[in-house]
Amino acid sequence: MSFSSNQFMRFQKANMLRRRIRLKRKEYRIGKDAKCEYCPETDLRALDKFDGAVLCRNCRLTQAGKSVIERHHFSGRNNDEFLLAIPANEHAVLSDYQQDWPEETMKNPHRKILPEIAAWLRAIGDFEKHVIERSGTQAERLERLSKKLEKRFGSNWDKDIEIEDNEENDK
Ligand SMILES: [Zn+2]
Fold it and tell me: Are residues 84 and 153 both part of a single domain?
């Protein structure tokens, strides 16, 4: 029996539901619109509550005097030894994605080749999703900063600085 597109859609829907429940539970535990107390991190997957304060993993490790770099099993520890050195926040996000992989792909106890390749493809897809999400978040930060700068220095602040630069260079 082949894996029909209907079955695939059901699998996708079940995954989305599981993910939503997981994030809602986290939100319930640490609060709505949570943000790290020390940095702009708002991704629920990287946040947690420590002694009553909401902190991201990176800041939590920094507070403890530890490195924020962790080793991530890119395609799952049972599929490949390949490790990626990444900040703890990114590790939290990529590990969260892995929770949605089919069990036979993630666990692959007998190291079968096809689930192993599937794991690699899922890992690459997750990584791309994450980069796209992060790009959006970073763009929003820039847009907020742009508005604040206009409010503080006027709507032509960027042009004024360019003029100042040119005047300094002409001296
Ligand atoms: Zn933080």
Answer: yes
Question: How many angstroms is it from 29 CA to the middle of ligand 1?
Answer: 17
Distance CA 84, CA 131 (A): 15
Residue appearing with tokens 């990444």: 86
Examine the domain organization and report whether 5 and 47 are in the same domain: yes
State in Å: Cα 41 to ligand 1 middle.
Answer: 5
Q: Which residue segment(s) compose the domain that 5 sits in? A: 1-66
Distance CA 128, CA 120 (A): 12
Please give the sequence-ordered ranges of beta strands (E in DSSP) within the chain, or none if there are none: 47-50, 53-56, 69-73, 83-87
83 CA → ligand 1 middle, Å:
24
Instruction: Kindly give the distance from the C-alpha atom of residue 51 to the centroid of ligand 1, in angstroms, as a whole number.
Output: 15
Model confidence pLDDT, tens digit, residues 14-57: 888 888 999 999 999 999 899 999 999 999 999 999 988 999 99
